[in-house]
Amino acid sequence: MPRGSQTPYTRGLHELGDGLFAFLQPHGSWGWSNAGLVVGEGTSLLIDTLFDLRLTREMLDQMRPATGPGPIRQVLNTHGNGDHWYGNQLVPAEAEIVASAAAIDDMQEVPPTLMHTLAEADLDEALATFVRHAFAPFRFDGIEMRLPTRTFTGSLTLDVAGRRVELLDLGPAHTRADVIAYVPDARTVFTGDILFVGGTPIMWAGPVSNWLAACEHIEALDVDTVVPGHGPVTDKEGPRQVRRYLEHVRDEAAERHAAGMPAAEAALDIDLGEFADWSDPERIAVNVESIYAELDPAYERPPAPVLLTRMGAYLRGRRA
Length: 320
Fold this sequence. Notes:
By secondary structure, this protein is α/β, with parallel strands linked by helices. It has nine helices and twelve strands.
């Protein structure tokens, strides 16, 4: 059975062994997230739903033979970005949906109706460039907001028919809450968006110090299979790569902050070096803002529409 980096990066459900599965969505860019499945005797745990109803329905159809007589009775939403929870309405009505308490604010701030409005709006050129690039493949109409029914703070252990699944909130980092799901008996961890493999991480919340600590925590786990929130299944090289990217951007941003360079200018000035060929490099516009905010507690980050516009301008500049 393929494990870790041996799992092919193709769209659909992949068996990892030991009753574990990963649903992968290449190319892993905006909205193309992964999900996980832990199958026990008579019950299953789903780790994340997908960005729209069509994708989530297709995933659940592929998972049905794997769950067999053990339907999905628990769902974990690893964090509050829509590509990890907008499909919640399609899971069984009796399923318990679990998330970190801190994720609820993110979910309520960006409901599916807001994404639908954004996708349909008449936008200025730079913002429209970003919205088309990131969200054109997805449909946000008809999505009903189904929030988690059980929340926790810090850590929680789930019992999946006698199998222990350890949940740990390592945020704020990528978002306000970033939960990983560790399955000790299978030496496997599902990381949510703490890990983007082969793609640029985006730091909506920060601080970067928390995210670096999260990578180190994953590296210290007794695992050989690491399922990221985006990108191919990996091993401990995955968190090492993300940590190197974050350290690089942190150091480069700090140097420019000390020199008095504005964050927007710094994002364009930083040489991405070995990470330049990762997808979605425009995310550096958001990452630098988060690092500036960590360096200076009085610094006010621009609102989300401004950050999206800057990423659109970055994309337009690269295509010029």
